[in-house]
Write a structure and sequence with these properties.
This protein is mainly alpha-helical. The chain has one domain (about 5-115). It is built from three helices and no strands. Helix 2 packs antiparallel against helix 3 (about 75-110). The radius of gyration is 19 Å and the shape is elongated. The chain starts with 5 loop residues before the first helix and ends in an 11-residue tail after the last helix. The relative contact order is 0.18. It holds the Pfam family DUF983.
């Protein structure tokens, strides 16, 4: 079996251990185990790490775009909201799964779940 890049597998929503099974059970819910290799995925919890990064990225793009549109082209407020709110929402939702997959893959690649009290 060839070596799997855990970061690429996690970003695409596959098991970071084997690269074949699915990482997610729902939109953002981590599957309990990989259906292909049986690797236990439930102990890898990312918390709010991925959402924090995505809020900063999506909010930054949306805020910069809205401010640029307002000052450069003098768009009215209703047009700014009509354009930049869906862009920010779509960008945030579109990046959420790959970001969470990357966070889980980083934990698997660095064996973060195997650390205990004696290792600190």
């Amino acid at each position: 079996m060839a070596q799997v890049n855990p970061y690429l597998a996690g970003a695409t929503g596959h098991c970071p251990k084997c690269g074949e099974g699915f990482l997610f059970e729902g939109f953002l819910k981590i599957a309990p185990a990989c259906e292909a290799c049986g690797f236990e995925l439930s102990r890898h919890e990312t918390g709010d790490g991925a959402s924090t990064f995505i809020i900063l990225i999506g909010g930054g793009v949306g805020a910069f775009g809205a401010l640029f549109s307002m000052f450069a082209w003098h768009w009215p407020i209703w047009l700014l909201l009509l354009v930049w709110l869906p862009v920010t929402l779509g960008l945030s939702l579109g990046l959420m799964r790959p970001a969470k997959g990357l966070m889980v893959a980083a934990q698997v690649a660095n064996k973060a779940s195997e650390a205990g009290r004696r290792d600190v």
